[in-house]
Amino acid sequence: MSDLARTRADFPILHQQVNGKPLVYLDNGATSQKPRRVIDALVHYYERDNSNVHRGLHALSMRATDAYEGARARIAKFIHAADPAEIIFTRGTTESINIVAHSWARAHLKAGDVILTTEMEHHSNLVPWQQVARAVGATVRYIPVLGADAEGGLDYAALDTLLTPEVKLLAFTHISNTLGTINDAARLCARARAIGATTVIDAAQSIGHARIDVQALGCDFLAFSGHKMCGPTGIGVLYGRRALLDQLAPDETGGGMVVSVTYEGATWKPSPERHEAGTPNIADAIALGAACDYLDEIGRDAIAAHDHHLAQIAMEKLSVVPGIRIIGPRGGQPRGGLVSFAFAEVHAHDVVTFADEDGLALRGGHHCNQPLMRKLGLTSTTRASFYLYNTAAEIDVLVASLRRIQKFFVG
Ligand code: PLP
Questions:
Q1: Is 354 in contact with 364 (CB distance < 8 Å)?
Q2: Which of 269, 296, 323 is the last residue of a domain?
């Protein structure tokens, strides 16, 4: 990041004190902060263009429709989708994955089929598959996480035995929200494609942190949330290949997504309208488009390098804090911009509460990864997650705070 001070100036929320100390926001894995550009896009929309989309013929409705559809095209470009109709606006990653589970999986899976996922999934990319498997009589199988403490990577060798002809769906996270592991998404999609399985990528942790090219990845579906990429809460995306989305039965039905309705039934429009029943989240979709502009102006390669750099510094500095165990890949293994750690004798909730006194925003808990936590022999970890506005000096604040906590609890 060439001009970190300028980037920080773009985020009004960062310039405040918390508990009498400058805010050090290291909870970006949970949600990112919003630049002025995104906040302005929301205000502009509500002050000038607010109207319902698609159905109006007056000036405001046409402006709102243009801005909403413009955001769809912008997001298609952001992930290199072939067609804006491949972008479905949702509430976020969770809803996007649930749409695939409800609409695609229930229609395509039958008893005896296998849904393959990994041991490192967020509950959002795990529970929906367990539910659909139960409903249709399919089985969920897991690609193991390798020697989690040392590596935290996926056991790619296990794919040879796991990718049987019964596997109809492979759903995996791009970057683990607890381990920081970056999975080889293109490789996983290629292996799944070779046996005719459909692929779903949970890009919640990668979307705002690296270049994403759905065509190069070769995925069928990709899900992400706007709030983790400098956009608003309440808006997210389900990307799907056009051919799949046009065939998919809608998960929700109602206004805006029908061609014709009689007292006997209805027919559906093609994608994207068929998957967006009712009035959509217009303002937040438009602001998500502004977030794409912002991130591309900074440069996603620069952001990825910055995140990686901070994670490396954090790993080095945390590794010498007494009593700490760092979780996830080490030794140069691919790793996103987050570091999870655990103290043998201090619970993560105590760590986060004490760190808050030092102005730090961290996250402690199971991070919606309960089965992974059990596998790691932990109940919780503390997570520091970095983004484009964080500095190396903030890692020093983190380390000083952790040393204070360790001393207070353990002596
Ligand atoms: N998947 C991963 C890897 C996540 O980290 C998260 C959120 O933390 C989600 C899915 C769910 O995202 P949302 O709560 O925005 O739907």
A1: no
A2: 296
Our CA dihedral for 378, 355, 176, 213, rounded to 10 degrees, sits at 180
Overall average pLDDT of the 87-113 stretch:
97
Q: Are strands 338-343 and 363-365 parallel, antiparallel or unpaired?
A: unpaired
Please answer whether residues 175 and 402 qualify as being in contact, where contact means their C-beta atoms are separated by less than 8 angstroms: no
Residue 312 has pLDDT above 90, yes or no: yes
Q: Is 209 in the pocket of ligand 1 (CB under 6 A)?
A: no
The last residue of a domain, from among 281, 296, 311: 296
Tokens of 372: 């992974």
Determine the structural domain holding residue 394 and report its residue range: 4-27+299-410
Residues annotated catalytic, as ranges: 368
Q: Tokens for 374?
A: 């059990």
Q: Could you tell me the pTM of the whole model?
A: 0.97
pLDDT score at 149: 56
Compute the distance between CA of residue 76 and CA of residue 56 in angstroms, rounded to an integer: 25
Is 245's pLDDT higher than 80? yes
Claim to verify: residue 246 and residue 349 sit in the same structural domain: no
Paired strand residues for 327: 340
Residue nearest to atom 12 of ligand 1 (CA): 93
Cβ–ligand 1 contact at 28 (below 6 Å): no
Residue type, 369: N
- Per the listing, tokens 């009593």 go with 323
Return the structure tokens found at 144.
């193991």
Weakest mean pLDDT among 95-104, 167-176, 321-330: 321-330
What is the average per-residue pLDDT within 45-57? 93
pLDDT at 334: 81
Q: How far out from the chain centre does Cα 99 lie? A: 16
d(CA 347, CA 329): 22
* pLDDT for position 148: 54
Give nearest CA residue, ligand 1 atom 6.
204
Rounded to an integer, the average pLDDT of 224-228 is 98
